[in-house]
């Protein structure tokens, strides 16, 4: 389905009439290894910024995937507040896509792609069977495009003690790690060995 067809569904109000489903960019599934059911971490990030899965720009999905790989290597549970302490939410006013822009002083990763071409034109429709959820923990999450919340950066003082320790571990890593390489580790045969030898 093309972007214009999706936009038409939105404008005519027919998006929500077709039942429990989401549209997702094919490249996010194929290149970045995103799968449904969405895990707790991913669902919580989408819930905090209140955007549908297809509304998040592909570079944002890449950052989510890379963050999970790094947390796995550090034996940390991925935390949405810690992740969002490294990013601000930006909305493309013309179209409505949401980007996660890294904060300059705390940028963990370089963008997966400076110009992520053609991702907007190839959608896959994913439908939940028999009322099943798209999320592993049944947290409510928007399935359809909407105005995102203006989520503020999580301040260190707002984190739990465990969160502060996790943030300190991440802050000791090199800044601007190669997001594309780290995401590729998620599907590699020995991701932890490689990641630890290269970065940790």
UniProtKB/TrEMBL annotation:
Alphabetical UniProt keywords: Membrane, Transmembrane, Transmembrane helix
Presence of the UniProt keyword Transmembrane in the record: yes
Transmembrane segment boundaries: 32-52, 64-89, 95-112
Protein name: Uncharacterized protein
Source organism of the structure: Mucuna pruriens
Source lineage: Eukaryota, Viridiplantae, Streptophyta, Embryophyta, Tracheophyta
């Amino acid at each position: 389905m093309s972007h214009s067809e999706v936009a038409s569904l939105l404008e005519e109000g027919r998006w929500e009439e077709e039942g429990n489903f989401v549209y997702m960019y094919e490249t996010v599934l194929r290149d970045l290894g995103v799968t449904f059911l969405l895990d707790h971490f991913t669902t919580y990030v989408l819930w905090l910024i209140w955007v549908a899965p297809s509304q998040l720009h592909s570079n944002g999905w890449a950052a989510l995937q890379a963050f999970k790989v790094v947390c796995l290597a550090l034996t940390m549970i991925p935390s949405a507040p810690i992740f969002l302490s490294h990013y601000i939410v930006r909305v493309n006013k013309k179209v409505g896509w949401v980007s996660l822009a890294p904060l300059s002083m705390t940028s963990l990763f370089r963008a997966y792609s400076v110009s992520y071409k053609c991702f907007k034109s190839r959608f896959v429709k994913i439908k939940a069977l028999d009322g099943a959820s798209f999320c592993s923990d049944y947290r409510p999450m928007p399935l359809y495009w909407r105005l995102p919340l203006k989520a503020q950066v999580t301040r260190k003082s707002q984190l739990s003690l465990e969160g502060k320790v996790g943030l300190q571990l991440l802050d000791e890593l090199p800044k601007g790690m190669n997001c594309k390489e780290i995401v590729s580790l998620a599907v590699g045969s020995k991701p932890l060995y490689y990641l630890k030898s290269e970065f940790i």
